[in-house]
């Protein structure tokens, strides 16, 4: 059994703050600052450019990729780290379309994160081959998979409501129809068990700054199934995806396997923070994470529905049908969330009216949940959200 009291002690959490926004940005692992400082002073400072070899900087995207791969049910050697999630979506989507040249439809859903859809729109425009981005309601995805579809592009957990797609079933349906699958694991990796191998997924991408606690701007990752590793064409033919970067050849040759999905220079300082965060996962069982996050979410829903009848549950009622977050609808949700943050409970808001709360058992416990519900009730029952100071919109919501 995972000792969640021990894992909580491994994070820096400001005094008096209950942090329910790890689904947007994970908190600071206590070991991260020292790890980054070591990389800056002892590696960059003392080794200078020799750190690429002596400190293993160049190999680290694959090393960390394997550590993430263990958390998402991937085969060793088929996950690599680097760049941003949008870049990885673009790479996976371009490769999938190249593998299905006779088909023109990219199937996604209206609950997908907008950036994924933006990348699809941009790629379609760049290719100029008449591809179509077909967006349906989340519950209609399975029925919309036809022989026109080249690839499904789906985020497993809906960023707004936490609704959870059935990865195994949708992957089966897509592949039976001759389509490929891309799974965005931004709200899955570190939040619930993922079995890419068992589901037969073709491609997967994800970020490391949410449940994996890699820090703001932490690099993304990409998975390519072994059966596609030598034929997936990297649309972004970056220097570090070359078969021999330091041969400095004039023409591009893709690297072997997942290495071809590398693009730019590894973010060496950011990887140090992520490395410290991933150390915490060495003693964690994801089935325990899932069970505890469900328990915490159920407790929060029960408390809020008793104390705050003006809030409407927007997440699936069935905990097995949602990820590790709970969302409530409220007309003045933005202002209410700002008032709640002022009371020391940090969640976030998604337009037009959703208040989101994430439940990461690594650092959230039952007492946190009870106290968060109490403070939320104080905000709602006293209409603190009506104060104009909470209604001025900030850039990040």
List the helices and strands and how they pair.
Blueprint: H1 4-8, E1 11-12, E2 18-19, E3 28-29, H2 30-47, H3 51-54, H4 60-71, E4 79-81, H5 85-99, E5 105-109, H6 114-127, E6 132-136, E7 149-155, H7 167-176, E8 180-184, H8 196-199, E9 203-206, E10 221-224, H9 268-280, H10 286-307, E11 312-313, E12 325-329, H11 333-342, E13 345-346, E14 348-350, E15 354-358, H12 366-381
Parallel strand pairs: 2-13, 5-6, 5-7, 7-8, 8-9
Antiparallel strand pairs: 1-3, 4-10, 9-10, 11-12, 12-15, 14-15
Helix pairs in contact: 2-9, 4-9, 5-6, 10-12
Function: Catalyzes the cleavage of L-kynurenine (L-Kyn) and L-3-hydroxykynurenine (L-3OHKyn) into anthranilic acid (AA) and 3-hydroxyanthranilic acid (3-OHAA), respectively.
InterPro entries: Kynureninase (IPR010111), PyrdxlP-dep_Trfase (IPR015424), PyrdxlP-dep_Trfase_major (IPR015421), PyrdxlP-dep_Trfase_small (IPR015422)
Keywords: Hydrolase, Pyridine nucleotide biosynthesis, Pyridoxal phosphate
Q: Please describe the biggest sheet, giving its number of strands, its sense, and whether it closes into a barrel.
A: 7 strands, mixed
CATH architecture of the largest domain: 3-Layer(aba) Sandwich
SS summary, helix count: 12
The number of strands is: 15
In CATH, what is the class of the largest domain? Answer: Alpha Beta
What is the approximate shape?
globular
According to CATH, what is the topology of the largest domain? Aspartate Aminotransferase, domain 2
Rounded Rg: 22 Å
Low-confidence stretches: none
Q: Which range best describes the helical content: under 10%, 10-25%, 25-40%, 40-55%, 55-70% or over 70%?
A: 25-40%
Q: What is the rounded distance between the termini? A: 36 Å
Keywords: Hydrolase, Pyridine nucleotide biosynthesis, Pyridoxal phosphate
Subunit structure: Homodimer.
Cofactor: pyridoxal 5'-phosphate
Family: Belongs to the kynureninase family.
């Amino acid at each position: 059994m995972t000792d969640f009291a021990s894992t909580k002690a491994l994070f820096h959490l400001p005094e008096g703050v209950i942090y329910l926004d790890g689904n947007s940005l994970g908190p600071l692992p206590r070991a991260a600052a020292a790890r980054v400082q070591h990389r800056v002073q002892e590696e960059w400072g003392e080794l200078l450019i020799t750190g690429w070899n002596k400190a293993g900087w160049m190999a680290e995207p694959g090393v960390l990729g394997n550590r993430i791969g263990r958390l998402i049910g991937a085969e060793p050697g088929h996950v690599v780290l680097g760049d941003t999630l949008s870049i990885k979506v673009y790479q996976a989507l371009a490769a999938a379309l190249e593998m299905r040249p006779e088909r023109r439809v990219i199937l996604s859903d209206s609950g997908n994160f907008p950036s994924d859809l933006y990348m699809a729109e941009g790629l379609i425009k760049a290719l100029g081959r008449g591809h179509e981005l077909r967006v349906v309601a989340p519950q209609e995805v399975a029925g919309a998979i036809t022989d026109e579809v080249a690839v499904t592009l789906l985020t497993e957990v809906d960023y707004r409501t936490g609704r959870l797609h059935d990865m195994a079933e949708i992957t089966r349906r897509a592949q039976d129809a001759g389509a490929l699958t891309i799974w965005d694991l931004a709200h899955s990796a570190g939040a619930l068990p993922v079995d890419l191998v068992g589901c037969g997924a073709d491609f997967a991408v994800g970020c490391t700054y949410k449940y994996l606690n890699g820090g703001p701007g932490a690099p993304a990752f990409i998975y390519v199934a072994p059966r596609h590793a030598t034929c997936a064409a990297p649309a972004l033919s970056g220097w570090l995806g070359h078969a021999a970067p330091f041969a400095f050849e004039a023409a591009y040759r893709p690297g072997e396997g997942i290495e071809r999905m590398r693009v730019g220079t590894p973010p060496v300082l950011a990887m140090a923070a992520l490395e410290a965060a991933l150390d915490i996962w060495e003693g964690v069982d994801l089935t325990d994470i899932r069970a505890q996050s469900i328990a915490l979410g159920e407790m929060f829903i029960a408390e809020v529905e008793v104390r705050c009848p003006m809030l409407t549950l927007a997440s699936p009622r069935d905990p097995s049908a949602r990820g590790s977050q709970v969302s409530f609808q409220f007309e003045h949700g933005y202002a209410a969330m700002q008032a709640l943050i002022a009371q020391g409970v940090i969640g976030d808001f998604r337009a037009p009216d959703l208040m989101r709360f994430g439940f990461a058992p690594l650092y959230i416990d039952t007492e946190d949940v009870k106290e968060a519900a109490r403070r939320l009730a104080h905000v709602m029952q006293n209409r603190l959200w009506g104060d104009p100071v909470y209604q001025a919109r900030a850039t990040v919501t």
